[in-house]
Known about the structure:
Elements (H helix, E strand, L loop, with lengths): L4 E4 L6 E2 L1 H14 L7 H5 L6 H11 L7 H14 L6 E2 L3 H10 L3 E5 L4 H10 L8 E3 L11 H11 L6 E5 L2 H10 L3 E4 L15 E3 L4 H5 L3
Parallel strand pairs: 1-4, 1-6, 4-5, 6-7, 7-8
Antiparallel strand pairs: 2-3
Helix pairs in contact: 1-4, 3-4, 7-8
Amino acid sequence: MQPTLVVFDLDGTLIDSAPDMHRAVNLMLADLGCAPLTLSEIRSMVGDGASALIARALAARQCVSADPAKALAQFLEHYEEEPTACTRTFAGVAETLGRLQASGLTLAVCTNKPTRLTGMILERLEIDRFFARVLAGDSMPFRKPDPRALMEVINGFGTSKPATLMVGDSEVDAATAHSAGVPFVLMTYGYHRGPIEDISSIATLDHFRELATLLHA
């Protein structure tokens, strides 16, 4: 494979952020007088943006009287207090991103996470320097799995679809790439909801370092 642009999902692909989202969701639920969720439950709810995460959390705990907009604001307030208390990059991420960048590849992020949180996390984990562009969930009026989110990144660099690779961990990422007509590589360690074998990809990798070998970087 010889792409010129590699576009990464964030949560579950580059970073393990579920523990901090778990903390913030449960603080929000406590504010509303609702029972907490387990970490595994939160992992299964991640991928479609903060609004979807909160809607799923409220539904799971039957917080029927809660205002979703207010609950979202409470969640974001708690999350922004310390978004990297437990969040870490997955093994080999910084090293591999450096190798890919040094090989001449352009790297970008396409995430459904809000811009402010995305920027804070990338900077604090010291991987922001690798990315020529970061497209977040509130950057445009559409988000993954809408293929226009990915196409916004591709068109911004004047790159073709065949020269682009998307790397993600979930059904949402796969659907985005497939709808855009872009090759997709699946990282198995992330936050997918269903069986790995049900997610179509050109390659399935168990470790992030394997991406450098796949791309001959």
